[in-house]
């Protein structure tokens, strides 16, 4: 009996030593079917980093099929067929889109968020072992209201030389982003939610946002809640970021806070994120893609694919493919920890393709 069971025992020990898990996820029937995802390569480095994601997902044999559409930031509006594709597929992976500064067409990013009601933006800013940063123990999730505030685009010239810009804050949008933040904290075993505001000056607009956050916080007694003025928040972020856990913000502040937190934790090139609504989700680089228009990165093919690869892991988890998400995330983090293959923003000199090849090698 002992001799018969020995080969089985050796196989089990071997699997355990390889770090494999025998049971990770019990899907409902049909959940393993391949999912179609809308893919928008975008502008600048977008095609490079979305191409990197495609290579890695193909190497993993991930159950994802892409519908690809060419969209560029200088377009006046989204082509109807692209919007129809995202509505049909429910999920989109997107490279950065260049947004004109000053006059010209309106931001396609804002158009998409409003069209699909992607009211919550989530950026996960955390340290990665092997990537040195000024601060340790940074693990911040910035949840930003995505559809109103200063981004409403309600501007007009009253008289020549005088422009009026309206900041719109509603009870409905403030409540639902607060609920999303606390629900996220609850489901992800987070301990604290911090509301970022400027209610000392914008007493009605930001006051309404705070009132909504307080009402929602009262329904989650197990999660600590506090508030911080946005200018103090930025100072605290760069001096003691480890004090923050989940942060919930109005639209404009969230953009500033997320990029600051990303810079502290290793840079925008390694921070994943996405935009989500009731019915649809769009995954993209978490913090502002400031290098979208960097032609040098495009010519040298040295754009950092890490942020979008980690966003793709978030996408796979959203699609209920957790084992694939874990495998991708683990491979990316192993490459970062090893430190042999890094793009310039991470202190190296490697190309996008060299980083991709290293990630694929770590998948097995």
TrEMBL record:
Pfam families associated with the record: Iso_dh
Primary location group: mitochondrion
Example of a GO biological process term: tricarboxylic acid cycle
SMART domains in UniProt: Iso_dh (SM01329)
GO CC, one annotated term: mitochondrion
Alphabetized UniProt keyword annotations: Magnesium, Manganese, Metal-binding, Mitochondrion, NAD, Oxidoreductase, Transit peptide, Tricarboxylic acid cycle
Keyword hit for Manganese: yes
InterPro entries per the UniProt record, alphabetical: Isocitrate_DH_NAD, IsoPropMal-DH-like_dom
Keyword NAD in annotation: yes
UniProt-annotated location(s): Mitochondrion
Isopropylmalate dehydrogenase-like domain ranges (all copies): 36-359
Gene Ontology MF, one: metal ion binding
Residues annotated as transmembrane: none
Known role: Performs an essential role in the oxidative function of the citric acid cycle.
Family listed: Belongs to the isocitrate and isopropylmalate dehydrogenases family.
Designated name of the protein: Isopropylmalate dehydrogenase-like domain-containing protein
Native source organism of the sequence: Canna indica (Indian-shot)
